[in-house]
Amino acid sequence: EQSRRHALIGALLGIKHFVFCINKMDLVDYSEDVFRPIQDELHSLLIELGIKSHHFIPISAIDGDNVVHYSRRMPWYVDDPLIQHLEEVQFNDEIADMPFRMPVQYVIRPLSNELHDYRGYAGTIESGHIEVGQQIAVMPLGTEARITDIERPNGAVSSASESDAVTIRIAGDMGISRGDMFSSPNEKPTIDNHFEATVCWMTEKTSLRAGVMVRIKHTTHTVRALVLSVEFKVDVNDLSGQLASDDLVINEIGQVFMKTTEPLIFDEYVDNRATGSFILIDATTNETVGAGMIGRPACFATV
């Protein structure tokens, strides 16, 4: 039941890769006949949720069976033990094939005699791949520009991809500042100050309800946001469940409509976790009070 609950919450948050460890196999004499029905039930649930990447490992944590080394007491399990599986699993190719996204974190202008004309835009590539000479879009302007230089801490490079911290220089002079975003010209993100989001509320001091004003930090951009409405509270114990509610209290997850004082540049969370997620900050105390994912989770799309 706990594993089922975790799978439902994970699907709600847009997690696409699952590893389930079925523990305490020593209490059932390391029986394959006990393990397989659990595996089959979870497999059916994950397929229903649209999660294609999942793996199941029978373990006995107290003795270390299938944790670091193969278990001689479960010869019927022929895949990798947990640690080896986690060390070798690869997800970067999927992120590299996604549309290019790089929020601008800092505009570098030394204004020195040696570099009087230098203007670079520093940030971390959240997804995709770029090369010198490539055309990119500058958001929110939507104007296209050509990359003239890509610089990393150890010097100039000809290309870069997700997770790389780089400084990009472009041809032409544009009014670019922190919070803007570079993107693929043919697959641009959304620009809007109204959006639907799934929010997990994280403080017991207040509740999240219509009319509450908070600060929202999204990528490198921080603005004020107004909660327009709380649509419903999510029942994480029931895949199709929605609970009517006017507010969210600590540790509750709900679907809300929000409006920001300035437009955000975003993708839905199911398409890009980096550009589709945000945190909520109390404007008075600076305390982080919530975290959110833009868009409606797939498991509630037809409800």
- The rounded distance between the terminal residues' Cα atoms is 23 Å
The main β sheet shows up as:
8 strands, antiparallel
Helix/strand structural class: mainly beta
Tell me the fraction of residues in β-strands, as a range.
Answer: 35-45%
The backbone outline, from C-alpha atoms, is globular
What is Rg?
A: 23 Å
Low-confidence stretches: none
In helices, the fraction of residues equals: 10-25%
Q: What is the overall pLDDT average?
A: 88
* Number of DSSP E strands: 21
**In oligomeric terms, what are we looking at?**
single chain
Q: What is the helix tally? A: 4
Question: What order do the SSEs take from the amino end to the carboxyl end, as H and E?
Answer: HEHEHHEEEEEEEEEEEEEEEEEEE
Write the layout of secondary structure elements.
Blueprint (H helix, E strand, L loop, with lengths): L1 H11 L4 E6 L9 H17 L4 E6 L23 H7 L3 H5 L4 E3 L2 E3 L11 E5 L4 E3 L3 E5 L3 E10 L2 E3 L1 E3 L3 E6 L10 E3 L6 E12 L6 E2 L3 E6 L2 E14 L7 E2 L3 E2 L4 E14 L10 E5 L6 E7 L9
Parallel strand pairs: 1-2
Antiparallel strand pairs: 3-12, 4-5, 5-11, 6-10, 7-8, 7-12, 8-9, 8-11, 13-19, 13-21, 14-18, 15-16, 15-20, 16-17, 16-19, 20-21
Description:
This protein is mainly beta and 303 residues long. The strands form five sheets. Strands 3, 4, 5, 7, 8, 9, 11 and 12 form an eight-stranded antiparallel beta sheet that branches. Strands 13-19-16-15-20-21 form a six-stranded antiparallel beta barrel. Strands 1-2 form a two-stranded parallel ribbon. Helix content is 13%, strand content 40%. The radius of gyration is 23 Å and the shape is globular. The two termini are 23 Å apart.
